[in-house]
């Protein structure tokens, strides 16, 4: 028993939504495309989950944040897919794939075959158990990857108002969820192993600004240590966390954000992997010519850096998905390689920052670190390769994106520091 499609998108997240939109713009016939997703919702803008979705008032709820509202395009509701003849196979986990036979087998036992497959399986949140800590399945311990997690977090938060939350991890999830917990009137202590928050991107000086801002909102930081165990009450609920340095912190809830792993498992041994993801070429095509990979799961050539990278951000999910569809549908001679400028951003409390490029080499900070707008440039091998800006205007963010793409030679670092944001605005 089974169904056959020309195009199958495996995964129903951000990349899937943007790929479907690109297919519809380029023109496909009804019944040619299907999206298979373990989630029970049509693709949505995942970034909303740790921001608008967690607000105590005017909170974002579906259908308001289905893709592709994140780029101010059409909102692809379930009705949109129906009208465009795109089959949504929801609540369906694919348990195995056979790229030689071009088939997928679902957990319910259905075989779905394709001519072209786009793998958009994203990633899963790492569990504390993978670091040797047991008990993270307690009802007041939360993770955050999908709408089910976010819905659960809202319910746990609502039962903890005025209480204590321990946030484990100082990355994106830790920072964004800590801000949302504070907004929900919960006392927050953040615990992470590094010397400062957002260690993958921030310099100590940039991190210091955000940590001071969080402290002004009542957040406490315990750095350089990790969780070692939980204490529970008789119902199994966590009541305290014990840190490796022996500290005991009472807890009404725990929020965990300790990184992700790309969902590659179905294709291990069948497709070439690199950087923990599925390796693709400039057309987002894998080592099997009928299979493409996009979004968090794809390791693709970043032309600007001359190397393969795997990014975990929404802009690359959206653009890599659109590029793959363009490569599949466009006449061969018009197909170009994906030429992507990495772009990351976040919004917490009243703050908002953007980053473009690569954070390698020497750092030049600029602006007013005691005020509302400041930034940094990264200079590698004599060229400007990365730019960060907090509190910028639309024009200022466009300027740092433009200058980073151009990679100008920087002969005089002191002069760049003196010009600060003015340097980007003058290019
Ligand atoms: P996903 O959106 O994760 O989608 C993967 C889909 O595949 C899911 O629907 C999953 O259920 C499905 N799937 C996986 N395996 C199977 C299977 N075997 N069978 C069926 N279905 C399967 N990035 C930013 O740049 N800015 C932000 O502000 C930001 N905020 C974020 C907030 C949160 C809470 C999270 C979790 C991420 C955030 N990100 C942000 C990262 C961004 O959302 C991801 O980079 C993006 O979602 C990746 O898109 P994707 O389609 O590759 O994967
Ligand atoms: P992350 O990689 O941003 O941060 C992981 C953090 O976990 C590290 O910074 C470290 O502080 C901590 N950590 C690692 N091992 C630990 C341990 N054993 N104990 C305690 N802490 C430990 O990952 P994340 O914050 O979990 O985010 C998950 C994914 O969601 C990422 O791909 C991220 O890019 C994405 N996301 C992005 C945004 C955004 O771009 N604005 C927002 C939310 C989520
Ligand atoms: O935070 C975000 C973000 O970056 C999105 O794309 O929320 C979504 C949508 O803007 C929600 O409407």
TrEMBL record:
PANTHER family, A to Z: APOPTOSIS-INDUCING FACTOR 1, RIESKE DOMAIN-CONTAINING PROTEIN-RELATED
Keywords: FAD, Flavoprotein, Membrane, NAD, Oxidoreductase, Redox-active center, Transmembrane, Transmembrane helix
Any one Gene Ontology cellular component term annotated for this protein: cytoplasm
Residues of the FAD/NAD(P)-binding domain: 7-320
Pfam family, one: MDHAR3-like_C
Name used for this protein in its record: monodehydroascorbate reductase (NADH)
Domain Monodehydroascorbate reductase 3-like C-terminal: 341-424
Family affiliation: Belongs to the FAD-dependent oxidoreductase family.
InterPro entries: FAD-oxidoreductase/Apoptosis, FAD/NAD-bd_sf, FAD/NAD-binding_dom, FAD/NAD-linked_Rdtase_dimer_sf, MDHAR3-like_C
Single GO MF annotation: monodehydroascorbate reductase (NADH) activity
Enzyme Commission number(s) from the entry: 1.6.5.4
Known cofactor(s): FAD
Gene3D superfamilies for this protein: 3.30.390.30, FAD/NAD(P)-binding domain
């Amino acid at each position: 028993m089974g169904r056959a499609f020309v195009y199958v998108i495996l995964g129903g997240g951000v990349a899937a939504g943007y790929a479907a939109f690109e297919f519809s713009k380029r023109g496909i016939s009804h019944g040619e495309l299907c999206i298979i997703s373990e989630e029970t919702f049509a693709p949505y803008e995942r970034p909303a989950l740790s921001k608008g979705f967690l607000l105590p008032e005017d909170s974002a709820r579906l259908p308001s944040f289905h893709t592709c509202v994140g780029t101010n395009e059409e909102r692809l509701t379930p009705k949109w897919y129906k009208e465009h003849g795109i089959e949504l196979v929801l609540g369906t986990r694919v348990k195995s794939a056979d790229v030689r036979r071009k088939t997928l087998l679902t957990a319910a036992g259905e075989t779905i075959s394709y001519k072209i497959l786009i793998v958009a399986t994203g990633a899963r949140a790492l569990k504390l158990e993978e670091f040797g800590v047991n008990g993270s399945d307690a009802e007041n311990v939360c993770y955050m990857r999908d709408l089910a997690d976010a819905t659960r977090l809202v319910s746990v938060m609502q039962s903890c108002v005025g209480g204590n939350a321990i946030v484990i991890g100082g990355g994106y999830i830790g920072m964004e969820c800590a801000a949302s917990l504070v907004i929900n009137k919960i006392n927050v202590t953040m615990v992470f192993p590094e010397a400062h928050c957002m260690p993958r991107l921030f310099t100590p000086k940039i991190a210091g600004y955000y940590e001071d801002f969080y402290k002004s909102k009542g957040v406490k930081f315990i750095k350089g240590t990790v969780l070692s165990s939980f204490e529970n009450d008789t119902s199994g609920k966590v009541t305290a966390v014990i840190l490796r340095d022996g500290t005991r912190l009472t807890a009404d809830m725990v929020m965990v954000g300790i990184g992700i792993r790309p969902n590659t498992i179905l294709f291990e041994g069948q497709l070439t992997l690199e950087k923990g993801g599925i390796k693709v070429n400039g057309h987002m095509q894998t080592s099997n010519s009928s299979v493409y990979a996009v979004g968090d799961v794809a390791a693709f050539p970043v032309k600007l850096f001359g190397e393969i990278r795997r990014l975990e951000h929404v802009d690359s999910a959206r653009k890599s998905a659109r590029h793959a569809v363009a490569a599949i549908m466009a006449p061969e001679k018009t197909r170009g390689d994906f030429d992507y400028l990495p772009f990351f951003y976040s919004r917490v409390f009243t703050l908002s920052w953007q980053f473009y490029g690569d954070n390698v080499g020497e750092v030049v900070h600029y602006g007013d670190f005691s005020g509302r707008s400041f930034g940094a440039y990264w200079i590698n091998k004599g060229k400007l390769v990365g730019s960060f800006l907090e509190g910028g205007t639309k024009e200022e963010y466009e300027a740092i994106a433009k200058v980073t793409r151009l990679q100008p030679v920087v002969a005089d670092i002191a002069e760049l520091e003196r010009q600060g944001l003015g340097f980007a605005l003058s290019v």
